[in-house]
Amino acid sequence: MTQGSPIRLLLTFSFPLLIGNLFQQFYNMADTIIVGRTLGVNALAAVGATGSIMFLVLGFAQGLAGGLAVITAQRFGAQDAAGVRRSFTSSILLSAGFTLLLTAVSLLAARPLLEGMNTPADIIDDAYRYLSVIFTGIFASLFFNLLSSVIRALGDSRTPLLFLIIASVCNVVLDIVFIVNFGMGVAGAAWATVIAQVLSGLLCLLYIFRRFAILRLHREDWAWRGRFAWEHLRIATPMAFQFCIIAVGSIVVQGVLNGFGSTTVAAFTAASKIDQLATQPLASIGVAIATFSAQNYGAGKYRRIRDGVRKSTLLSLAFSLAGAGLVIGLGHPLVRLFVGEADPAVFTQAQTYLNLVSVFYFLLGCVFVYRNTIQGMGRAMVPMVAGVFELVMRVAAALVLARFIGYAGVCLASPLAWLGSCALIVPTYLATLRRLLPREETSSGEGTADEK
């Protein structure tokens, strides 16, 4: 990532990520499609009602894993082999501790959270069954996310794609077997997801040991280094809590949404899955620029970071327009994949969500690009504060706009949250770059043509 054309590197790196993210979305999409088509709209609503709570916990795990790998990428960019190995072991030890804590807390809090969100009585039991299994398998989520993040930190985004494809196929097969053949209901869909994640994590582990000599660990690499561990936590915990802050806003939104009834929850769930699928190119660019900025920051090539960000922003604009056209034009048939021939109100409300949200996709693209760039440069606190901005805007939309314009106000919560985040992270990125560029000029003069 520190040499060659930034646009070519970003596209080459992000394309496998895009395919991988799409297949990762198929984990949840397979659950919701099979649940909705075989168990009915209420079961679909039950799975959908768990989304914000799942994001609270699993988002924390994902943010933690991504944050721990930032130091690994920086050490790799600085060509510090010993630092890469010690970063890897520190990440493993920290992840193990957080796994135990997250599992215990989430299992205890699942039912009270569902009740506090006013989950409709006709779906709360199924929602709790689904969450209980997913939270039992937190270790699988953190296991895969950590190892895949480390592989990407070393510049390989293709191999995790292959493992995700294998796991996604496994997930779909197990969904059908557990739900249709074994009659396990929504819990079967959750078990299918956990087992598939375990499989993908094991494949990552085997690949790391066979492919990356730099990660062949020695006994001394496992020595606990408190200051080095804190360096990881300084970046990883704000990134993890950033997801939690966003998730709290989603929980508030879900609580307001639940008041509209099971039909609206099902419509919102189906539309959200389509929305997540359409925005995966934006997320992929964000992950690519995080690795790009981390490695170039470690190498002291700040002008390459600026160039990469500019090109990533243009790519995000193009993908935003394409995604909006897709969901607005094909919303109705896409929703039918989830619910079949359901109540017409489901289709109407799902399309309302897609129409209102998709025109603001470029804001989300900017959030991914600038937030991940800042994180790659080691400034993890700013994205967390930006998450607070998102929380305030999201909650305000859910509580205030929903009161005046109803369901449309709930739909506008996400675009307003993206706007709040951009208001902080874009100026912060520009200020950080202005401070860093003179350092590169001092150390390297005018730089190479490639760096420019």
From TrEMBL:
Main location: membrane
Entry keyword Membrane: yes
Membrane topology: Multi-pass membrane protein
Intracellular or extracellular location(s): Cell membrane
CDD domains attached to this UniProt entry: MATE_yoeA_like (cd13138)
Annotated NCBIfam families: matE
Identification of the protein by name: MATE family efflux transporter
